[in-house]
Specification:
alpha/beta; Rossmann fold; 16 helices; 13 strands; globular; hydrolase
Length: about 375
C-alpha cells in the first residue's frame, strides 16, 4: 500500500508541473476541459480489492470494486482479467468508484458456450453496472476492452461520461500475426501444447532472446505469455478462441469502430498508446485520433501493448487529470439524432484516404 501511495503522490506531482504537452505527447485542445477540481483522497483497504460476484442472466460475473466518487470502469483485453489493473486500482480508487469486471469467458467469470462478440460484451457491462446501481461512468478500455468501451458508448451514449481507449482494437486491420494464427482451425491444440512439460522453458528462452534483440514483440511477450498462463483448462481456452474469432481472422481484425467515430463529438475522449505496440500498431492511434473529433492522444515512448504496466504512474496521472479537467458528456436525444443525420463518416473516418476507407468498409462494423 505504501508503494501505491508513493505512485499516487508522484502522479499528482506530475500533473501539477505538467505545462500542457510534453515530448511524445499529442494533445488536442478540447473546449470541455476545465480547471482541475479539488479532490478528497481516501485510503483503500485490501478487502475492497478482492473479487466480488454477481449472477446476471444465470451466469456468474466476477468484478473488483473499490473507492468512492465518480464511477470509473476498467475493461481488460482478450484473455486477460481484472487482475491486469490490480496495481492501479488503489491509486484510482482514491478519487473514483472503480469497477473492474472479468468479462464473460475470462478470469473468474463463467465461461459458457455463448456470444462473445463486442456488442454482447457491451451489453454485459451495462447489465453488471445496472445491478451495481451505476447509471453512467467513464470507461477505460484496453485492447479488446477498448473496442467494448467504444461499442458501449455507441449503444448506450446516455450512460457514457468519457472514453479512455488504451491500445484499442477495432481501428485498423493490422494485428499481431500470432493472433491471426490462433484464429485458424487447430488453434486449440496449439494453445494446449504450450502447457506441455518443457514448452514453457523453451518459450521463455525465445522471449528473453527477443528482449535482448530489442524487438517490439519482446516488449510485449512477457505480458502475452501471462495471458497463455491464464488459460489453464479446455473451457478457458475455448472461451478465448471464441472471443478471438469474433474480432480476428486470418486476414486481421474483422470489426471496425471507424465508421461511427464521428458520434464521439462532444464526448471527452483520450487515446493512450505505446509507440512499440506489437499487437495493435501505434499507427492505429493516429487514425483513431483523426477520426474522433476533439480527441486527445498520448503516446508512451518505449512502451508496448500494455503502457499502463510500463509506466503506471504516468497512466494514473493522465487518467486523473483527464477526468478532473473535462466535464462529462452532456448527451441528448436531439444531439444524437443530428449526429446520425448529419454525420459524414466518408470524410471523417478515412485517415488513410480512399484505400483505407475501402479496406475498412470490408470489415464488420462493431
Amino acid at each position: 500500500m505504501r508503494k501505491a501511495a508513493l505512485r499516487w503522490e508522484e502522479g499528482l506531482a506530475a500533473v501539477a508541473r505538467r505545462p500542457g504537452t510534453g515530448e511524445g505527447e499529442h494533445v488536442v485542445d478540447d473546449p470541455l476541459r476545465r480547471p482541475v477540481r479539488a479532490v478528497r483522497l481516501r485510503s483503500v483497504g485490501d478487502a475492497e480489492l478482492a473479487l466480488q460476484y454477481r449472477v446476471v442472466h444465470g451466469y456468474r460475473r466476477a468484478f473488483r470494486r473499490a473507492g468512492e466518487g465518480p464511477p470509473l470502469v476498467l475493461i481488460h483485453g482478450i484473455g486477460d482479467s481484472s487482475a491486469t489493473w490490480a496495481e492501479l486500482i488503489p491509486d484510482l480508487a482514491r478519487t473514483h468508484t472503480v469497477i473492474a469486471p472479468d468479462l464473460l469467458g475470462h478470469g473468474d467469470s463463467d465461461k459458457p458456450r455463448a456470444d462473445y462478440s463486442v456488442a454482447a460484451y457491451a451489453n454485459g457491462v451495462r447489465d453488471l453496472l445496472t445491478t451495481l446501481g451505476i447509471e453512467s461512468a467513464t470507461l477505460v478500455g484496453h485492447s479488446l476492452g477498448g473496442g467494448v468501451a467504444m461499442q458501449f458508448a455507441y449503444q448506450f451514449p446516455e450512460r457514457t461520461e468519457r472514453l479512455i481507449l488504451v491500445s484499442a482494437g477495432g481501428v485498423g486491420r493490422e494485428v499481431n500475426p500470432v493472433l491471426r494464427l490462433v484464429s485458424l482451425p487447430g488453434a486449440h491444440l496449439m494453445l494446449s501444447s504450450l502447457r506441455l512439460p518443457g514448452m514453457r522453458l523453451q518459450v521463455g528462452l525465445a522471449v528473453r532472446l527477443m528482449k535482448l534483440l530489442d524487438t517490439d514483440l519482446g516488449q510485449d511477450a512477457p505480458d502475452l505469455l501471462n495471458l497463455v498462463d491464464a488459460l489453464p483448462d479446455e473451457t478457458a481456452r475455448n472461451a478465448f478462441i471464441r472471443t478471438l474469432r469474433a474480432v480476428v481472422d486470418w486476414r486481421g481484425q474483422v470489426v471496425t469502430m471507424l465508421d461511427r467515430c464521428y458520434l464521439t463529438e462532444g464526448m471527452p475522449t483520450m487515446l493512450l498508446w505505446g509507440d512499440r505496440d506489437s499487437v495493435v500498431p501505434v499507427q492505429h492511434a493516429f487514425g483513431a485520433h483523426e477520426a474522433m473529433p476533439g480527441s486527445r492522444l498520448e503516446i508512451f515512448e518505449g512502451a508496448g501493448h500494455f503502457p499502463f504496466h510500463t509506466d503506471p504512474a504516468r497512466f494514473v496521472s493522465l487518467v486523473e487529470e483527464f477526468t478532473a479537467t473535462t466535464a462529462p458528456a452532456d448527451w441528448s436525444r436531439e444531439h444524437w439524432r443530428e449526429l446520425l443525420r448529419d454525420g459524414s463518416p466518408g470524410s471523417a473516418w478515412a485517415p488513410g484516404g480512399e484505400q483505407e476507407l475501402r479496406e475498412a468498409s470490408e470489415r464488420s462494423a462493431t
